[in-house]
Give the backbone structure.
Amino acid sequence: MAKLPRISGMKAVKAFNKSGWSVVRQTGSHIIMMKNDYKVILSVPRHKELDRGTLRKLIKYAGLTVEDFVRLL
């Protein structure tokens, strides 16, 4: 199992964008992302450093594995 790196919210948004998610809007400090064939909406905090637990949940909701996400970075 790949170890999750400490990354910013914007870096996470760029990685999710590469896997087909698109930015819909920004509400406060959270970037809202959607994917056409998913009913799930990702709410990515725009922080300098994301907590690993938060990042892991976002990866899970996006339907990715940690290894896939690390490759997208």
